[in-house]
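Reopening this one. Same input as before:
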Amino acid sequence: MAEDHLQRKLGLFPATNIVVANMIGAGIFTTSGLLMAGLNNPLIMLALWVIGGIIALCGALSYGELGAAMPGAGGEYHFLSKLYHPLFGFLSGWVSFVVGFSAPIAASAMGFSEYFCRAIPAIPNGFESAGIMDQAATRTFLSVSVILIFTLIHYRGIKTGTVIQNILTLLKVALIVFLLLAGFLSGKGDINNFNAVSGVSSDFAGWKTIGLSLMWIMFAYSGWNASTYLGAEIKNPSKTLPRSLIVGTGLVMLIYLGLNALYIYGINPEEMKGVISVGGLAMGNLFGKSADTLFSLLIAFALFSSLSAFIIIGPRVYYSMAKDGLFFKSVAQIHPKFQVPSNSIVLQGTIAIVLALSGTFEQVLTYMGFALGIFPILTVIGVFKLRKDN
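Same output, byte for byte:
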């Protein structure tokens, strides 16, 4: 079996943390301004976030059933190979390699650099003035640097990596709760911001905009299946795995709705349009420029948690594929000291860096959103096949 050399060390808390960390990443902190630019209506945007959450929760329930019945490393690759045919697992594994994990790592790193440079503009401005690199190159340099740092951290073992992951996730959730409480209690927002501005047209172009918006929202919700990728390393997976998926996804849905309501409360819809660092703008409006700087910096470092989670789970897919002879053989190598799929981790980091160097944030989002929707749907359908076969 592909998981023979991986040890079951993870309980409910770290498994749920992986789900929460994997979901709450660049998407929620960066897409709402882009969504508003197309939708022109805060209530439609909130409705789409609710729909996205319901879809994610249904997916978590389905994957929970599959994970309990077929615990193992690899997530969709593992499920599709068992349910249908190894060819389906092979295709999903290769999509995961480029789109499912490497691209979100790049997106989280790029989101970090956006917020970091918003918080401390003196750094990109200083490099540009000194003729070292322009502002775009500075953002790219920061993105590549954090990918390298966290790849090295998780190269050194699952135990150390999950301790750091747990700390980062707890800090991120605490930050978000603080943002919500402080923002709504400030009384400095405007409830009238929730009123419709104009909305989208009812023709094909309008439905296309709604479809693209929902695709970006589902990118923000991606990760609801995260703990299934670590099925071979979770204790008592038949109970722990489904619980981690359902609890983690439900918590994130509530957080997302709260954050979007805060963005709308703190920012006029017209001002929000096209803004990537929307969380920093909301805090700046509610508490002043100094708050914009502080919270942009905090959100930048909160994105470390999701980036870290992607770096943990992705290599387990490529490891499983390589063990089954469907990926480069060297990727199946387990490090003799750190007991992790070391070559797999390095390969994933390399692809993420290439993506960070080659595209804009919006390009990476669109690229991910389309490809990530195909195989989860096929996997969810597999629940009915599992029930029929049993």
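So the earlier flakiness isn't reproducible anymore. For the record, The radius of gyration is 20 Å.
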